[in-house]
Amino acid sequence: MCTRYISPEQREIEAFWRIDRRSNQRKDWEYLLTVFPLSVASFIRRAEDVEYARELVVGQWGMIPPWSKTHVPTTARGTRLSTVNARTEGMEKSPTYKGAWARGKRCIIPAASFDEPNWETGKNVWWRFRRADGAPWGLAGLWDTWTDKDTGEVWDSYTMLTLNADGHPLMGRMHKPDPKLPPDQQDKRSLIPLEAHDFDRWLTCTVEEARAMLKVPSVGLFEAGPVLGDTAVVEP
């Protein structure tokens, strides 16, 4: 599960994706390049008023469920809920994600790099993942809009989609293994990078076509290694 990544600067996103920014940023939002859960960052979605056009907006990383009383994602009982990543295998039935998926509210999350925890040394050593070709990542995600019933404030939020990566030569090495489970049943996870020729298709295609695009990336796509001096003993 990815819990931090680095966003390109706005001008870099606009240039690479050939897109104009649409301002939906409230004055109380602070835009950060190093993105953590509940941070505000950029994502790309289909423009509603122009066919096949992309728009660049900002939103909270962590999907806000429809029933949540605050922008901090919670369960119906009020318990804190992690929604920065969505398992594709269950999103069509998930109360949090199924509406966005069914309505085609797919997005692209630009990232210069993302980090994953590696426990092969017995402790968490963060690894950083960049594209081998030097381009930014365009990660597959979902987005939705939530309105605060008390204040009327409108929040856009998003989540990254993940796939099972057990057996993948690189992504299968990430995250803390469960000693009670065999190696082929660990449910290691991978984000889903999109290629440039699929950007518009991802934003505009049918649900069935989008489902067929959910694939674990080849190992040759990655440039990855430990982040020197960045370790932690507990996985977030």
Corresponding CATH architecture: Alpha-Beta Complex
* CATH superfamily caption: SOS response associated peptidase-like
Major pleated sheet: 5 strands, antiparallel
Question: What top-tier CATH class fits best?
Answer: Alpha Beta
User: What percent strand?
Assistant: 25-35%
- The CATH topology turns out to be hypothetical protein yedk fold
Strand line-up of the largest beta sheet = 2-1-7-8-12
Count of individual beta strands: 12
Radius of gyration: 17 Å
What's the number of domains?
1
Share of helical residues: 10-25%
- Contiguous low-pLDDT stretches (5 residues minimum) are 231-236
Distance between the termini: 9 Å
Mean pLDDT: 89
Number of discrete helical segments: 4
The SSE string, one letter per element, is EHEEEEHEEEEEEHHE
Q: Please state the structural category.
A: mainly beta
